[in-house]
């Protein structure tokens, strides 16, 4: 059985393995043991805090196989993007120019550096082992974060965003970066992403061009990357799109990947999740698969379970499910159909 839970300091060696295996462009998961250790400690502090609003907290989760004790994935929620420093991205919108004398009006797409997305809650750091791609484990890893938001809504903003990793080739090169960012930093794409993960995107963003970049002036290969998803990022995109997230006019600063956006109240696993109480120790005549979580804070747990769920009635869980969720008879739980 797989369980999603908050990361612990003892997870550090396995977390570094996940970071090493993660896709180039997942900047929130750099392969640096010191940085990862600080992230774990920051996450632990966030789960311990008594907060009444969204602030700088980050909530880091891992997906653990309870049989082997192997970590198979990780994901994260940053309560407020741009809380301590601007959260930079590129706004992709048309600039319109006109000539009254010639009776001509022409719109040209242009990319403008901005920090419009500061203040939103940010989903980041999604990575799952290749063996679990396109399985219910990926749904658990991504969507259980949303159920955590549902249980602790005061800790998060009214809107949620996430950046999907943009296209890069098999050698780790990005046509978008080569056409834009590389002119301002003599660095390959992978190294720029690594530095962004270790430090912040601010020091890179502040050296980027401050004026609009007209898209038609970029090479065609770079233009084709705007809003394009890396093949290995497609599942993360698809899961959240089914949750009600939509693309908008913002793309990633480094690889041109799309940004997804949703109002918290419209996200499926938040708006449609149901609460109930646990009835333990019973046999289960399973009628469907569900994501199930407790509503705890620092002891948050979530699993996938086959259940006989009937609204308004206690939810029967076997002993193994109860142990994984850290619940007992009468404990509150949250669930939504897989």
UniProtKB/TrEMBL annotation:
What keywords were assigned to this record? Acyltransferase, Arginine metabolism, Transferase
Which EC class heads this enzyme's classification?
Answer: transferase
EC assignment: 2.3.1.109
Q: What InterPro entries does UniProt report for this protein, alphabetically?
A: Acyl_CoA_acyltransferase, Arg_succinylTrfase_AstA/AruG
Taxonomically, the superkingdom here is Bacteria
Q: Which Pfam families match?
A: AstA (PF04958)
The record's Gene Ontology biological-process terms are:
L-arginine catabolic process
One GO molecular-function entry = arginine N-succinyltransferase activity
Identify this protein by name: Arginine N-succinyltransferase subunit alpha
Originating species: Pseudomonas fluorescens
Gene that codes for this? astA_1
């Amino acid at each position: 059985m797989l369980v999603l839970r908050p990361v612990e300091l003892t997870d550090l060696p396995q977390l570094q393995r996940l970071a090493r295996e993660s896709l180039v462009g997942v900047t929130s998961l750099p392969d640096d043991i010191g940085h990862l250790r600080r992230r774990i400690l920051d996450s632990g502090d966030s789960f311990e805090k008594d907060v009444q609003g969204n602030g700088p907290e980050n909530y880091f989760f891992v997906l653990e196989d309870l049989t082997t004790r192997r970590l198979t994935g990780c994901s994260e929620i940053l309560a407020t993007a741009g809380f301590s420093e601007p959260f930079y991205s590129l706004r992709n919108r048309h600039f319109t120019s006109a000539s009254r004398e010639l009776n001509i009006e022409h719109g040209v797409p242009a990319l403008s550096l901005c920090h419009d997305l500061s203040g939103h809650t940010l989903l980041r750091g999604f990575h799952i082992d290749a063996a679990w791609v396109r399985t219910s484990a990926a749904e658990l890893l991504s969507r259980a974060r949303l159920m955590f938001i549902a249980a602790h809504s005061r800790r998060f903003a009214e809107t949620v965003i996430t950046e999907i990793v943009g296209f890069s080739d098999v050698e780790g090169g990005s046509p978008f970066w080569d056409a834009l960012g590389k002119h301002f930093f003599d660095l390959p794409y992978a190294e720029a992403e690594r530095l962004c993960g270790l430090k912040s995107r601010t020091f890179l963003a502040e050296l980027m061009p401050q004026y609009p970049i007209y898209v038609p002036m970029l090479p065609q290969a770079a233009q084709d990357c705007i809003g394009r998803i890396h093949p290995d990022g497609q599942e993360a995109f698809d899961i959240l799109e089914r949750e009600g997230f939509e693309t908008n006019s913002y793309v990633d600063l480094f690889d041109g990947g799309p940004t997804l956006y949703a109002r918290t109240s419209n996200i499926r696993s938040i708006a449609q999740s149901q609460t109930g109480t646990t009835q333990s120790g019973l046999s289960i005549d399973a009628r469907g698969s569900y994501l199930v979580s407790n509503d705890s804070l620092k002891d948050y747990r979530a699993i996938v379970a086959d259940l006989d769920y009937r609204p308004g009635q206690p939810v029967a869980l076997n002993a193994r499910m109860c142990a994984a969720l850290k619940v007992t008879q009468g404990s509150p739980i949250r669930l939504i159909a897989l």
